[in-house]
């Protein structure tokens, strides 16, 4: 009887693990165009979803374009991430009234993307500059989340404002989660979902890549706002504190989110929205 119970329990646990793995894989994989647009079914202003070219790459961009006299929020996602991370912002009626908005998939994170992540802040900056090249820079607000933070901050062209959300900008406080070993170990790499393999590659190279930029963050001509959760362990709050030390107080503002974590883009939507609205025309 005991053996039968152990066998049944083992089967149940195995089924649960497999089920969780499938759910996790499906939930975190890039969404199809149709799935992306589902988030905007009740949106007052309908978004424009397009395929764009940068160098030899094709990527997706979604845009809320209402009035050229308005400022434009340009969202840059992190690792792992996609343009879908900002769907709640792009579909919000008040933000639509106050801003034009753009979000895009970075290379390696597009739906069914066969291209690898580029593992280069310099490349990502060049791509971002290409996206905003036809916009009035005086009305561009760059919003970089997590890994998207250093991409936005590396832009040296003058824009209206740079807003960082939990930015990963300093190598010495860049954590390397134990789970990365599943990607590093060849015996377990096959278990890692495709998009997480891309995210793992980018994460593993990020620390060294940051060293090329982190001593020169304050060289930007732009005013910078960094919003960071004090309980963030994925990208520690210390990132923004170290960033604050590099800037004069009239150029940099640190907004503390007490007990906030790294999911602030979703869990603290109302707070982030309020901060964004401060930079509308």
CATH hierarchy class name of the largest domain: Alpha Beta
Number of helices: 12
Number of strands: 8
| Helix content estimate | 25-40%
Helix-strand sequence: HHEEEHHEHEHEHHHEHEHH
Q: What topology, given as strand order, has the largest sheet?
A: 1-2-4-3-5-6-7-8
Question: CATH fold name of the largest domain, please?
Answer: Rossmann fold
Number of self-contained structural domains: 2
Q: Major β-sheet, in short? A: 8 strands, mixed
Net shape: globular
Cα(first) to Cα(last) distance is 73 Å
Beta-strand share of residues: 15-25%
Roughly how many Å is the radius of gyration?
Answer: 20 Å
| The CATH homologous superfamily of the largest domain | Alpha/Beta hydrolase fold, catalytic domain
CATH architect. name of the largest domain? 3-Layer(aba) Sandwich
Pfam families: Abhydrolase_1
Transmembrane segments: 5-27
Keywords: Membrane, Transmembrane, Transmembrane helix
Domain AB hydrolase-1: 72-198
Written overview of the protein:
Keywords: Membrane, Transmembrane, Transmembrane helix. InterPro entries: AB_hydrolase_1, AB_hydrolase_fold. With 281 residues, this protein is α/β, with parallel strands linked by helices. The chain has 2 domains: 1-30; 33-277, Alpha/Beta hydrolase fold, catalytic domain (Rossmann fold, 3-Layer(aba) Sandwich). Helices cover 38% and strands 18% of the residues. The chain has 12 helices and 8 strands. The chain has helices at 2-28, 33-38, 87-90, 93-98, 121-132, 148-153, 181-184, 186-189, 194-210, 238-246, 264-267, 269-277, and strands at residues 48-54, 57-64, 71-76, 99-104, 140-145, 161-165, 224-229, 252-257. Strands 1-2-4-3-5-6-7-8 form an 8-stranded mixed β-sheet. The chain is globular, with a radius of gyration of 20 Å. The termini are far apart. The mean pLDDT is 91.
